[in-house]
User: Fold this.
Amino acid sequence: MGWVESLQKALDFMEEHLLEDISIEEISKAANSSSFHFQRTFSILTETSVGEYLRRRRLTLAAQDLCTSDIKIIDAAYKYGYDTPEAFAKAFRRQHGITPSEARKFIGKLKSYNRLVIQVNLKGAEPMQYTIVEKEAFQLIGVKKRFSLMNEENTKGIPLLWQQVNEDGTSDELAGLNNGAVQGLLGVCVAAPEENQMDYWVAAARDGDVPQKFLSYEVPSLKWAVFGVNGAMPNAIQNKWKEIFTEWFPSSGYQHAAGPELEVYPAGDAYSEDYYSEIWIPVK
Assistant:
């Protein structure tokens, strides 16, 4: 199954089962993907989580029901997965800015989230610079924190972790210990043993001893697609992730392989327009 077809099957599955209590595992299975990599891909492409997308779609349909039928508000609450009318009303107001009762009376404006369509660009108007690299296993040392992939906890928490390690000197210390297979400070995403969880590392590649204050992680022997990123953080690297998933993967013939994803930050001013960084993705 191709990359685009896999994503479309997952989107179709979500739409067909919107009124059911479907799990991330079931959705990922429809995409023939692990839950970790599916959620990572989905959030990169849409800038929202799977759970938030489902909530938005359900509340969009709930608003349509209230405006076009005589369904009772309590029945709409249960139909769209809420245990109480109060919980439904709170979520409804957060999305639409008005209450279900006001929507029924056509008071105020509603916010509609339409069915998602993944668009890919196969024109190749702008060249994407990448290399394929095979590396033997190597050791990382650093600090890690576990995040939930639900409710965008990871996207909110990772910048805070970087802020902490930059302020307390941890990032400078890791940069000084970097003598391994990859040069630069690393941001590393690793699937956690628990479903819907991920480990994020701020780390450096190191040969030799592991200072007591740091943890270690062995990156397995893998084939990597390495993409150069030119520009100031964080926009440059965020934009490159989108390009990779909307342009490169659909047309390259490669698939994402099991393994960690690396963002490589060499020394320099990361907020300069001339800054160079890299994204490393395991591929097969």
